[in-house]
Amino acid sequence: MSINSFGHLFRFTTWGESHGPAIGAVVDGCPPGLRLSEADVQPWLDKRRPGTSRFTTQRREPDQVRILSGVFEGRTTGTPISLMIENVDQRSKDYSEVALAYRPGHADYAYDAKYGFRDYRGGGRSSARETASRVAAGAVARLVIPQVRVRGWVEAIGGDAIDYAAFDDAAIDGNPFFCPDPAAAIRWEALVDGARKAGSSLGAVVACEAGGVPAGWGAPLYAKLDAELAHACMGINAVKGVEIGDGFAAAALTGEANADAMRPGDAGPEFLANHAGGITGGIATGQPIRLRVAFKPTSSILTPVATIDRDGAAADIATRGRHDPCVGIRGVPVVEAMMALVLADQALLHRGQTGR
Amino acid sequence: MSINSFGHLFRFTTWGESHGPAIGAVVDGCPPGLRLSEADVQPWLDKRRPGTSRFTTQRREPDQVRILSGVFEGRTTGTPISLMIENVDQRSKDYSEVALAYRPGHADYAYDAKYGFRDYRGGGRSSARETASRVAAGAVARLVIPQVRVRGWVEAIGGDAIDYAAFDDAAIDGNPFFCPDPAAAIRWEALVDGARKAGSSLGAVVACEAGGVPAGWGAPLYAKLDAELAHACMGINAVKGVEIGDGFAAAALTGEANADAMRPGDAGPEFLANHAGGITGGIATGQPIRLRVAFKPTSSILTPVATIDRDGAAADIATRGRHDPCVGIRGVPVVEAMMALVLADQALLHRGQTGR
Amino acid sequence: MSINSFGHLFRFTTWGESHGPAIGAVVDGCPPGLRLSEADVQPWLDKRRPGTSRFTTQRREPDQVRILSGVFEGRTTGTPISLMIENVDQRSKDYSEVALAYRPGHADYAYDAKYGFRDYRGGGRSSARETASRVAAGAVARLVIPQVRVRGWVEAIGGDAIDYAAFDDAAIDGNPFFCPDPAAAIRWEALVDGARKAGSSLGAVVACEAGGVPAGWGAPLYAKLDAELAHACMGINAVKGVEIGDGFAAAALTGEANADAMRPGDAGPEFLANHAGGITGGIATGQPIRLRVAFKPTSSILTPVATIDRDGAAADIATRGRHDPCVGIRGVPVVEAMMALVLADQALLHRGQTGR
Amino acid sequence: MSINSFGHLFRFTTWGESHGPAIGAVVDGCPPGLRLSEADVQPWLDKRRPGTSRFTTQRREPDQVRILSGVFEGRTTGTPISLMIENVDQRSKDYSEVALAYRPGHADYAYDAKYGFRDYRGGGRSSARETASRVAAGAVARLVIPQVRVRGWVEAIGGDAIDYAAFDDAAIDGNPFFCPDPAAAIRWEALVDGARKAGSSLGAVVACEAGGVPAGWGAPLYAKLDAELAHACMGINAVKGVEIGDGFAAAALTGEANADAMRPGDAGPEFLANHAGGITGGIATGQPIRLRVAFKPTSSILTPVATIDRDGAAADIATRGRHDPCVGIRGVPVVEAMMALVLADQALLHRGQTGR
Hints:
4 copies of one chain form a homotetramer. Chain A has helices spanning 38-48, 96-100, 108-115, 131-144, 182-197, 225-234, 255-258, 331-354, and strands at 5-6, 11-16, 22-28, 65-67, 71-72, 75-76, 81-86, 149-157, 160-161, 204-211, 239-244, 262-264, 269-271, 279-280, 283-284, 289-295, 305-308, 314-317.
């Protein structure tokens, strides 16, 4: 089985390195007849695009997507959709240091241990640049499940969390942090600026919710909706934790406190709480699907860290260059994309088996 | 792709319901020539077996495994290994209440929404009894990677955590909680007894570590070692969160605080910390793989909870019968099994692609 | 990917050896709500069952199937259906000769080259006994596509072919050869008897047709309906060739002679010929799907053949014991089963992607 | 599972239509460290390239391949290899006739039945142009198994077969038919010219052999080497039959006549015949792998054929434009590529499971 593909029926395969000529995704299994053009994909890529504020990497990539196949007269044909994004700003810089010494926290050492060598330019295949392909594929996934709204935001940066009482959906796109709490956004400006100027970095927690998922999507065992979402999100660069619903907090609760009681509603049950995050037994309940994702701080920092070089000798390495001081921020459109991709896949799996 | 199978090259498929005649697993892709008999599997099943203390369900299942295929003259042949466990204690009880009303937190409602009906006896396919099949398959996986030691324990019950300063590996198997901190084990006795007597339930956090995993296992993108582990663990009944290494705590750190510095060691690097939990870029670094798993409290409680019945009418339901007051405890051998299964699979994938 | 599984959405996994305690199949992905009991499976197994005439192996196996999971109150639940058939007549015989020397034409030598050793008793996993599992799984597949009628027959034995002008569907089940031409059936009686008495064996050609397959099932490239059928049939023991429609005869035709002209019909087109065997571009046209399968003569013969033993020394081997003089005869229900399994899978794949 | 991908561990995904901007393949799972540049791929594409003689379509495509990812400093990195071929000669022509009426023998009607509409320009995704992607991927596969030599040729055109007594490997690349028999090549010149001038078309039989495949590659049941090859070849446009070794001829033999006797050889057995085509029980024996593939005559012919249009009304259609009068000729490099792709995949699967 291919290890650069994701999904069962709605499936995508990505390719490309940070400093190659281009990156891309091939989306397979898309239903035929959906309206699709570059204009449906570009806005999501623009959300993820680097260089739009001083709080993200200064690499300037237009991230213009081209659809090379799978669309005819403005509609998907049911055949593979090839999406390509050219790399433009592969700034000529000296990678000799990165080529020789392993950056702690990066994939460098593990990669060499696996393959014997690696494309070290800008992280090669392990670069967060690969996530642009996921976002492009995710834009197609959204068209497969128009009834679903996937919406993410940053919940905390460097341990400073939003106040959910101040949650304002409209605020999310109004600041460079995808922050739904305007007061927190102001605090984060100083926080992230400080980290950036110090050559340091910060971790973040991203939350994401999918509304409109009908009860029944998912599977009881080895393609559980929550397991697929955990796989999807833990596979994003820099992610170290995933929670569904109450997550680790549920582990401290009693059964009574954790119960999502039901009463008769207009269409199916009305739930009195959503500790479960919209999933029981791996299957959607019809409530909003809720998850949280932990991003570690960017491993690229200016402070020199002890390491070894390719010959095993001691070295110190400081990572200069263009980096996100808080990689979790641009993680929001990526988490959204992965959630949309999982849900589109589950929608087709469910329809395949049950006809609904 | 089958949704009751797990793994790429080392792959298993499970079948069976709580109250059917038997459950089982078919393990496929096992290397030939490994010594294997029922005696290699049974001890792990015995760790998971119900009814061994008053802190677990009182269902009495001997959980005797039979190997029906794939072994000849004591060695694996490279062909499918069929493992079967007969169900013995399917106590005749009245399931009419469960058949009619949906138990909140259980798969009941979502299952009906998916399939239109369900085997409601004892949870049917969604019963935690299915995890016995995982444990049996996991026992085979351990034989594929003898250099690896997978070891799990309970870290917290109902919010009461162990003191890692008192961690004693030898203590884990000496109490009914897989607790490495003898003082915590004594506290938990009262805690779980209280919940059990009150007909309530408790959540738990399970930790698991794999030592001896060589640097290089894993994959850079869509079969990342951490993503596969997250999928494996989030797919266990009642799990709501998974962390690798520092997990959510890493999201509150700076890049400096999160860096796992390296210095020259005897064989490869020596790491000065393990915030990463032994995985960077989806690939093992050679450090111990560390993860944490959050189990919600058992949804079966005696306190009546508001719900609806199959006709959509309001109802109250209290779940009588035999249940684990804290399902996370018996989750330990299951988390271990899933970790072993992922690692065996990655070992073969790595060897297939790289020849190492 | 597991190598003992077949299918994408409707998928089955088989296990078991000729002389182990049992064999079986786990059918995954079956739609919920279908009526299913052992009585739906047994008749197909009875067609394939050995020992029913002197023209098949004299091994006496009742081939009683048990359904161990996936069915509740007489209907499929959408979860794995575990089918088990116990081996009864594992006659105690001396396999020392087979254990030491490789039978030409059998899997013996190649198996040892792959795995280093093998379960040599009765062919082990390579025994045609495994096909009982396929037939059992195929019986479930038929229920998924009740609108389809899959029907196979023997077209030729040892080069002696039926006369299609005498084709009588009703005759197929009236003789021990699944022969639709009563005159040929009489000839074959002498032919196969002669081979049996001489300790020789004969090859055969099996034809199979599926009526009622709607236009649209299939896929344009790497899951082409014809490619999937070729895979399914070439994977049956002793098969050496597969043709769709006119097959190799089409290679000698001109485009004009091979054209399947169309004219307006009551529901879609009416075809004036079916050279294509009901498939163009990998997708069903709505015509009957037609294929032919070549079975080589059973490799087990009494005439000694030169071979080598496990130490590489020269040896002669004659295969005594219970064997089908013409393994193609009992291939009919197996080809039917594989065709039903492919079609059920394609039906679900088509529905998953297109909603139809 | 994706339906535009092929292979288990060495896996490729293709995309693109006849008249889109480009076509391509993403090769995943390639071992790291192999020398690879465009110069390794281009010669195989040149063999398949249209417009090189008057016996193939006159579409002029340079078929220049670009490697967009997966190679660093001239070596494969173990990450996806993106291969792209731009479409150059999408001659502006009037497709209104093809858009409206279904060409018999083509995918047109079945495609519309499946997806509701299609990209009709030049066959869209069903165009034989897609096979260029297979050939490009196959060139990479050859590098994975340098010990194997895959070699194909045309055995018959329009029923006129070569004389194997006159077989000359060196002649194959010396004529426009990949014909190993110089006398047949001269006959075919007149034969194909006649068909071309008449606006007719001819079928062909392609043979292919792989030498150097070690005993042990393959799998006993559902990834049998012969089944995988049958799938690979039956999935090529216009193929209607596949044989391994003696194929259908074996069905007319007795067991004695079909036996491949063995005697001790220098390394493993020496076989006295190769009726089996180098595969028993789905596993390679170490003999040359031999297969034959039947290509139907090109369905595009000038003679008008009765058909229906999209509204179901009667119509006649004659296919003007640029077409191969015998599509089987250019099938040779495609069959070779598919064989190399299957063998590379099996090599990695074998190594993954057994370590050899």
